[in-house]
Amino acid sequence: MNLAMAVIWLFFALVLVLGNWLNWDLGSMNSMKGNAIVPMLALIMSLYNFSRWWYMQIQTRYEKNPPHVKPRVAKSAEYHPEFDFSKDPPNDPPPNPSTNGHS
User: Fold this and answer.
1) CA 44 to CA 47: how far, in whole Å?
2) What residues contact residue 50 under an 8 Å CB cut-off, 6+ apart?
3) Which positions of the chain have pLDDT values less than 70?
4) Domain that holds residue 48
């Protein structure tokens, strides 16, 4: 439906642009000479409907074949105290720096 509406709006925009360019007698549309807002709105509506159609195509493709998701790897049971930040740090004073710049 959206693709059909996009084609209809595109056809309408092309008729208006070509009609003004080739000086066709478009009846009441002839008073629009030099005014490009109606063909531009028709072109915008065509692009809008085409983008909705494109989005629906992508959405149905992913609903039929969802992307593969890797299962999570279980956590290891090993305990690493150097990465346990839930405990308070020890109150030992830091070591005195050396005077020659080396540790």
Assistant:
1) 5
2) 2, 3, 6
3) 24-35, 101-103
4) 2-64
Q: Which residues contact 52 (CB under 8 A, 6 or more apart)?
A: 2
First CA to last CA distance, the chain: 75
Q: Tell how far CA 60 is from the center of its chain.
A: 17
- Cα-based angle 63, 68, 73 (whole degrees, multiple of 5): 140
Number of residues that this document lists for the chain: 103
> Measured between alpha carbons, how far is 10 from 24 in angstroms, rounded to an integer?
18
Predicted confidence at residue 44, as pLDDT, reads 93
- Would residue 38 count as lying in a domain? yes
The overall pTM is greater than 0.85: no
* Cβ 24 vs Cβ 57: under 8 Å: no
Asked if residue 54 belongs to a domain, the reply is yes
